[in-house]
Amino acid sequence: MNRVRGRFALRGLAALLLAASAAGCSRLGSEQTGPVTTKTEQGTTTAPPASEVAARKGALVRFVHAVPGLAPVDFFAGDTRAFEGLIYKHVAAYRELPGASGVYRLRLAGQETGEPLAEKTEGFGAGRHHTVVAFPAAGSGLFSKGEGVELRFIADEFEPPAAGRARVRVVNASPDLGDVDLYATGRAEPLVRGAKTGAATAYAEAEPAGAGLEVRRAGENITTLTVPGAKVEAGRFYTVFLVGGTKGASRLEAFVVEDQFGPAPPR
Fold first, then answer.
1. How far apart are CA 251 and CA 267, in angstroms?
2. First-to-last C-alpha distance (Å) of the chain
3. Are strands 58-65 and 129-136 parallel, antiparallel or unpaired?
4. How do the domains of the chain map onto residue ranges?
5. What is the C-alpha to C-alpha distance for residues 116 and 75, in angstroms, rounded to an integer?
6. What tens digit of pLDDT does each residue of 54-98 get?
7. Under CATH, to which class is 159-267 assigned?
8. CA separation for the pair 243, 254 (Å, rounded)
9. pLDDT exceeds 80 at position 248
């Protein structure tokens, strides 16, 4: 009898270990590791699978210039120029950078040894996706020489949405817009709530929509900005960038970055 009980106990323990292992694999695989295709106003690019760079202890990183009035910039990883000549509203494609902590600097384009506009020590998760954004510093206003630029390091958590749904987030880089909600045109409930100035929201699951997007100040029913023609399709990830201001020479604008797993379909 004791032997029988022992066999059942061992089987039960094996089942528990198998379940724990499966759960661990599920958590590790919650961010998919296939190639990521990204669509922006600049075109379509495809990054390699994150598993490939993870084997080299690297990360996939892209850069976004979100400072109105600021000249083109270069982004440095240590002493290496990682991205160069980036203009306002440009979204640079993912590229591999070291995952280990390092010093990152932003300089005006072509000024390899110039005084950095911004500098930050940061590390990336190996095999993960990240977006680095140049923000106007809080209270800096809109300017032409680059005073008060901040670097924000945003983790792109590509956890798959539920079947038939998409994932949407907002990066609010406007210095004076305030907190906002994002709506699909014609919908009563927001896709994303409470996008704070100078920050990025987490991804929120959303129903597909095809009539455009609307930005409203948090808690208000008046549309401040529209993004006509913007679609939200199932199985994809959308980042809505809000840039510029409501005052001064730089106008308030939005642009959308769409990510999806797998290579771009043939046209």
1. 35
2. 67
3. parallel
4. 38-156, 159-267
5. 10
6. 999 999 999 999 999 999 999 999 999 999 999 999 999 999 999
7. mainly beta
8. 6
9. no
